[in-house]
Amino acid sequence: MNRHDATKQFHSGGDRLADLIDESHSVELPTPDTETPMVSRSVRLPLDTYERVRAAADARGIGVTTLMRQWIEAGLADLDDSATVSLADVRRAIASLSHPSAA
């Protein structure tokens, strides 16, 4: 039975939709990348801003939402002086100290 027929039977009082669901193949859901509960929010951005964020995320090899989350966490850390710094940023800062730019 296809989905359309099962839906018609379900709305007519039959229980074939439940049977169709029971017959479906099990699907593995993706494993969350964190144990911290997450909340999804929608953010409206101008297209050019989004493209810049996407390019920055691509350059770092991470997803857009991951980069946005990192930026938000860093901004909040600045507010309460509990700065969060990426290891890559720390390494760049240390490397620049040992090889100062010509002034």
TrEMBL record:
In this chain, composition skew of type Basic and acidic residues spans 1-26
Q: Where is this region: Disordered?
A: 1-38
The name under which this protein is listed is Ribbon-helix-helix protein, copG family
Which source organism?
Micromonospora phaseoli
